[in-house]
Amino acid sequence: MDNIIFELSDVHFSYLGKFPALCGVNMNIRQGEKITLIGANGCGKSTLLSILDGLIFPDKGSVKFLGKEFKETDFTDENFSKNFRKKVGLVFQNPEVQLFCPTVKEDIVFGPLALGTEIAEIQRRLEEIIDLLEIKDLLNRTPHQLSIGEKRKVTIASTLIIHPDILILDEPTDGLDPLTTRHIIDLLLQLNEAGKTIIMATHDLHIVQEMSDFVYVFSNNKTIIKFGRPDVILKDMALLLENNLAHIHSHRHKDKVHTHPHLHSGHLTD
Amino acid sequence: MINYHNFIERSITGALSFLKESVFADQYAAKKGFLQSLDPRIKTITFMVFIVLIIFTKDIRVLFFMYALCLLLGSISKINLWFFLRRSWIFIPLFSIFIAIPALFNIVTPGETLVALKIFGIKLTITRQGFFGASLFVARVVTSVSFAVLLTLTTKHFELLKVLRIFKIPQIFVMTLGMCYRYIFLFVEIVSSTYLAVKSRVGSRIHYRTGQHLAAWNIAALWQRSYRLNEDVYNAMLSRGYRGESFALNDFRTKTKDWLWVCLVVIISAGVSYFNYG
After folding, report:
1. Is the pTM of this model over 0.80?
2. Structural domains of chain B, count
3. Do B249 and A119 lie within an 8 Å CB cutoff?
4. Which residue spans within chain A are E strands per DSSP?
5. A4-268 has which CATH code?
């Protein structure tokens, strides 16, 4: 049980006190792991990521960070808040939400400036990050002029520049073309090899195998129905079908109609 | 094809063309002209000096000289003259002509008669003092508005916002301005897409009452979306360490050219002041 970063016990959360979003989630996340949360739309993945990032807090149950339970009141302490924000970074699902500054450059440096990082260090990190993500040409552009792939890269840059140990990503490949998806996945794998913990919510089962040490499957009951190694989870077709992660696909081979489960992940179709 | 009899379509098209024009104006700021090459801080201060000088100028010839200087600066900054005149003169009637017209007449400014008029049986005279006073006022407005427009055309909007932050304008004010600029584009796009979606289902010929209902529904939906976005953006700010205070990265660098420009501005200001008060 060493190196546990997040420990969630019986976490419940509801919006406005009447729309349940999480119903009894238990989860342990260890340092350096790659974790993937999969599930149908509206099953609570994004809510869970917001809880892990300390943006919302459970109605019931507890969330421990590095062995210590954290509550909303802890974030009124400037030191705790700064330390937490330096360690945990969240890339939002909707880039329009995360890119709120007039230019890409100001968006990227917003975090480190708010966290009191030295100017020289910010400049150094900025150079490093724009080289890594190949976004030098975008720096002086306004976010509304960018394509979805460019926006996604900038949101990742604006989180990575903080140098968080734990990177949380909400559907980072949603709406991206295959090449940009590959680029982002390669980058995340590289960051994980460098020791960062990656927690990601996705529908894209293409990327689950290589992006996960463990996969958590959410059910429509807003709870985790199963977790395990990706090869085990992805082979459990009944589980995937039941939770809207795969569908029955039929197509014609010459004069015969052929039907099989399909989950957009080549090795699993038969 | 735009239906110009349809108020909603006309408004949305107008907003979109404003959006396009703003992006187009930003292209002027990106050009490699004289004013674009100056440090935005120096440029803003020197233009403020020019505007203050203009406000205190009593001689219309000095104002003509300043206006000519403004046009010259525009031309060496690769600003299309016609575009510049359109942009600056659009504000002139708004700020000056309507205020200046009454000052022409003897009722407001008594003095030596220049032209006598009879309007609806009322005898009015335009006085020499009124005419010169109004001309001076309009010339001041024309020149100062032109300098302000030239500053905004040759400076990227985010650089202007950053200059405001560096000059210690309250950050909440600057941040609100920045976010308005950032999200107005998003909302205009949402409104335009929503309208197109409605049009694709009901066609362009709709009863005005239905049009009113659709517009009201659109406003309500947009308000809801903006409210939701407001919460999400705040969370995104918190997530990156925002605690009620944000900072700007001051990465402006002055060059020799900037200091030469400052020297030139000092010389012009001294000359203008001498001409005014000497």
Report:
1. no
2. 1
3. yes
4. 4-15, 19-30, 34-38, 60-65, 68-69, 88-91, 166-170, 197-202, 214-218, 224-228, 247-253, 256-262
5. 3.40.50.300
